[in-house]
Amino acid sequence: MTATPAGGVPLPGAAREGESEPRLGLGASLRPADAPAKTQGTFPYAADLWAEGLLWAAVLRSPHPHARIVSIDTAPAAAMPGVRAVVTHEDVPGAATHGRRVADRPAFARDVVRHHGEPIAAVAADHPDTARLAAAAIAVEYEVLEPVTDPEKAFEAEPIHPDGNLVRHIPLRFGDESVTGEVVVEGLYRIGRQDPAPIGAEAALAVPRTDGGVEIYTASTDPHTDRDLAAACLGLRPEQVKVVVTGVPGATADREDLSVQFPLALLALRTGCPVKLAANREESFLGHAHRHPTLLRYRHHADAEGRLVKVEAQILLDAGAYADDSADALAAAVAFAAGPYVVPHAAVDGWAVRTNNPPSGHMRGEGAMQVCAAYEGQMDKLAAKLGLDPVELRMRNVMATGDLLPTGQTVTCPAPVAELLRAVREAPLPPLPKESPEEEWLLPGGPEGAGDPGAVRRGVGYALGMVHMLGAEGTDEVSTATVKVNGPVATVMCAAVETGQGFSTLARQIVQEVLGIEEVHVVPVDTDQPPAGPGARGRHTWVSGGAVERAAKMVRTQLLQPLAAKFGMSVELLTIADGRITSYDGVLSTTVAEALEGKELWATAQCRPHPTEPLDDTGQGDAFVGLAFAAIRAVVDVDVELGAVRVVEMAVAQDVGRVLNPRQLRARIEAGVTQGVGAALTEHLRVSRGVVRHPDLTAYPLPTALDAPDVRVVKLVEERDVVAPFGAKSVSAVPVVVSPAAVAAAVRAATGRPVNRLPIRPQAAVMTP
Q1: Residue pLDDT, tens place only, 199-253
Q2: Is residue 445's pLDDT more than 70?
Q3: What are the b/e assignments for 156-165, b being 16+ CB within 10 Å?
Q4: Which tens digits make up the pLDDT trace of 684-704?
């Protein structure tokens, strides 16, 4: 992959000709501190942990998507040599259910199992093979029930949960519902079940404490919530449970549930020994949440010039067996149902329903990705019906700062949507492949593929999309950070987990920028520190980065006040740059190291963005703190006889607010685009009547290095959001949201076929004679 500007134009945030990129601080491509350990294979992940007297755990999971539990006989497992404990719902000492938004998920299935893979029992033994054999020996008698697997039928089906099948309904009404347009297009769209498929499967180690509590070592992205949920189920006070965050081997959704933490903690307390579990790939697929499969019906109204008049939509999210983050995902889907376009009238109904399918939950761009594929498909249909260029149609409708969302909220942040679209339209197109044997690998069939070069058609497609930053609908976003300085070394303490998004590196850069100290260390995260919240939607860049900046500025004041007083001037007249403190008039000039000699300074600060509000009964309200936008042009080659698709290039223009780390930012964009390409072409967790089929990476094809397209960042718009610390915006989610829609548009352009399902099936790309 490449990440280069079009036409040789330097990207914002990059070093221009004749100037060098900063070596330290904001704007520098500072290397992550853990990069050497990760590349050398010495970085400690949870699967690598060990403790004296270690036992191994295994979890028994339901083979049925829906069944009544008649009986559970643990005696065969308990009698096996080497087995130290077997636990079921009867052994849960505290709350029987848990959940991040709604406490509707049992710690262990009690009377009913509601999805394939639901935990029934857990075993601790002296060897991992013994633990797995013992779990398999537990005799469970089931009365198999008819599963509810069609979300459209969930409305009339018997409730699968005491709270009913409906998780949430949002009826959004904006403008005049009776208005119609001169031109109308309709569409039905289906989005599949994408799995986070982490590089490292779930793993954890639980160690009992002498005070009756327990320590849990795991790759959590929200350790304080994990602590509180586990403590409630264990019947302990939160301070009796400590979560220590180990290395996180990637996280796009899979690190935000109690898939292994609670069973391990319970077994550790029961046995008095450390207990560890390292899930295999099948257990990982069955144990964590996935992207919401979604059914979308749309009707777009426009005038004769192509300007949108009204958008009507029905959006149905399959929540799976439990609520999880489905209410949040639905809010994003409904609010962004029309996309980054000006729509004077809208009527959108969104539902999230429980089924006996695998649970759905948080995943990058949840809700926003599904509707983006649908509304961009509608824009292509509208352009074709009006005989307009798809880009021109979009240009006539794009949103800008000051426009209204269909929720009635004014877009107050920078919204350079037109600029982004122009950038990808004007970028040079990649060259056509040569029809020569040495370059046949460029064809969709790959090296020595069965395809005929004469059957390959090239398509170019465009898509625009948006995501919200931070939590929504009244979520109290807050983070706390402490910065300590002892001589030439600074230390940052903040419970913001490094999940690969680069927070640890950003924290170092912030302190370097504010204090001029080169050596900055970030303390490992545990729940003895004040909470910082989950790592999602760019919140750690904004909220946790903001807390670090405020704490560093407080230390800066402590450092400069004595110097300012000595020279009879205010602190504001002193600057720190390149490790030196200087006054405006040059009278004072000293190094930061000299000023810090013999001193120990520290400060703690919080960052809390402005509040939001829940959507009301008509879907109206200021629900979002900020928005981020992107435009992507996809170029694909399609073998119209075989239906094979190769993504040649993805040209990206993105609204980033401010580039804080150029190299890291481009890496995040490339990763987001590649994940989006996977959702567009290959990634779909196959489920038949609620049962996950072949839960492994052979049957779930992820994009490899050969599948990943060239990612060309043609423009990064640095129009700072004045309410965000540093003015920066979320980077990773919006390319995931927009990429699938762009690929689908390009396949439509190549084949003339109506692509209305993701991932795109080969038969959808075949042109019949």
Answers
A1: 888 899 999 999 999 999 998 888 999 999 999 999 999 999 999 999 887 766 5
A2: no
A3: ebeebeeeeb
A4: 999 999 999 989 998 899 998
* Whole-angstrom distance, CA of residue 456 vs CA of residue 99: 49
Backbone angles phi, psi at 214, to 5 degrees: -150, 145
Tell me how far CA of residue 273 lies from CA of 51, 56, 433, in angstroms: 9, 10, 61
All domains of the chain, ordered by start, with CATH?
48-145+202-248+255-286 (3.90.1170.50), 294-473+613-764 (3.30.365.10), 479-607 (3.30.365.10)
Say if residues 673 and 649 touch (Cβ distance below 8 Å). no
Neighbours of 686 (CB within 10 A): 13
Sequence-distant (6+) residues with CB within 8 A of 169 are 349, 350, 351
Please tell me the distance from the alpha carbon of residue 292 to that of residue 365, in angstroms, as a whole number.
11
Strands 345-354 and 308-320: parallel
Compute the distance between CA of residue 529 and CA of residue 245 in angstroms, rounded to an integer. 12
- Is a pLDDT exceeding 60 seen at residue 383? yes
The answer to whether the predicted template modeling score (pTM) of the entire model surpasses 0.85 is yes
Query: Across residues 642-658, what is the average pLDDT?
Result: 94
Query: What's the chain's average pLDDT?
Result: 91
Does the pLDDT value for residue 439 go beyond 70? no
Structure tokens that stand for 379 in this block: 């824009």
Rounded distance, CA 427 to CA 633, Å?
9
Report the alpha-carbon distance of residue 136 to residue 242 in Å, rounded.
Answer: 31
Residue 20 contacts by C-beta under 8 Å, 6 or more apart in sequence?
none
Give the C-alpha separation, 169 to 709, whole Å. 38
Of the pLDDT bands very low, low, confident and very high (cuts 50, 70, 90), residue 12 is very low
Q: What are phi and psi of 203, to 5 degrees?
A: -155, 155
Please report which helix (H) or strand (E) contains residue 768, including its range. none
CB-based burial, 623-632: b 16+ in 10 Å, e otherwise: bbbbbbbbbb
Task: Give which of 656, 608, 316 is closest to 474, Cα–Cα.
Answer: 608
More confident residue, 474 or 481: 481
Length of the chain: 769
By the 8 A CB rule, do 337 and 172 touch?
yes
User: Would the pLDDT of 434 be above 80?
Assistant: no
Partners of 59 in the β-ladder: 122
Cα distance between residue 189 and residue 746, in whole Å: 16
Q: How many CB atoms lie within 10 A of CB 603?
A: 18
> How many angstroms separate the CA atoms of 130 and 81, rounded?
8
Contact call for residues 23 and 76 (beta carbons, < 8 A): no
